[in-house]
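ok trying this again, last paste got cut off
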Amino acid sequence: MFILMVVIFVLGYTAIALEHPLRLDKAASALLTGVILWALYALNSASILHLGFSPGWEEIGENAKYIIDYLKPNLGEHFNHSTFAETVELSKNTVEFVKHDLEHHLIEIAEILFFLLGAMTIVEIIDSHQGFKVITDKIKTVNKIKLLWILSFLTFFMSAALDNLTTTIVLVALLRKLISDQKTRWFFASMVVLAANAGGAWSPIGDVTTIMLWIGGQVTAGTIIKNVFIPSLITMIVPLIILSFTQKGDVTRPVIEEDANEFTKMGERIFILILGVSSLLFVPVFKTFTHLPPYVGMLGGLGVMWFTTEMLHRDKIIGVKKKLAVVGVLKKVDTPTIFFFLGILSAVAALQSAGHLALLAGWLDQHIGNIYGIDLAIGILSSIVDNVPLVAGAMGMYPIASPEAAAANHYLTYFVQDGHFWEFLAYCAGTGGSILIIGSAAGVAAMGMEKIDFIWYLKKISLLALIGYLAGALTYYLMFV
């Protein structure tokens, strides 16, 4: 059953990767994978745990042995070894251990999901008020190179302030107003994906994987921004420099009929845009001062926006109020994405609890050994499969080292909070997904919206993305080695 869990995980991942050919939403595949893995684990917990690969299970055994060794000489004749051994065995009930581990993982997963739900709702509120139109209306150029640099930098910083998935959706929608030719639009959309992933890698709220590392305590907001910003910028700039010598001419603007239905005034758009972005940027500040999990700050920001919009539109007619009220906006939030993350993080948690990830960590240490090589490998893998489970797996494989442990073992300094392993992992997992169109949530979104062909992306963009990825990785290495 231990091997069968891996087989189920691979099959689930295959279904997720082949979402479009199978016409099966990846959320369904992820949820089924997570549930089946935990069910297999629970039904066969005794045989799986007694293999000795689960770190948590082994820790219980070590603690029990320590207690016995400590109590026996101190209690002497009053120590009832058989009774105490029965108590230890009861505490090591395999089914109870699995249930306890599931509850533990659910708390961590829920923090991520509530954070995402709050962030996605805030962005939808801004969009429903046409707040992003304030930015897009300022873009006038039709020169390919100028437009490429403008959109890339806009995407880079928007992704850091919002998130790469939402930014990609907004920018791809914008491209439809700026470029009429499909293949040219494919090209620009692909570069938006690259810039969005680069921008999300250095921000604590810009990418799901960075959010996971931040919430998990592996990195802190200020340090990840300071140390990963330049490598992420290089990842985007190197491909742009190459394209500046290969792309010529202008883009053709489509003829667009202006929407006669304007539900918001310019002042409202600017106000909601500033309020929304401020709410998102407030989250790391809130965490720093209160030391509460980031999702609390995100829900606080959502509460402020909810209250503000209710007051702002309380006197408007019912039809307009329905379009702008948060209750109506919530219907547009991408709920399947929330369920996808719930399923895939649950599946990874099952492999972590059973001990598969501990085995993988040992294999990587044995065959690669170097932490930079391990992170580079994870980044390349993230172009084939989603980076969320890869980072979740790495978080499970390598626990955060304490300063005391790092002082005793220099190798563990890479794994302390803000250690180079975690920072470089944020960079690699965030930007490596750009190498293939299916390697990131932003890429999958652009692929779905513009029907970008996988082979076309492989021929036109993958090499550029790989060059940028390696250039940024080299930059980070030279900065800190």
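PB: full thing came through this time. The chain has two domains: 2-106+335-480, 117-213+221-328.
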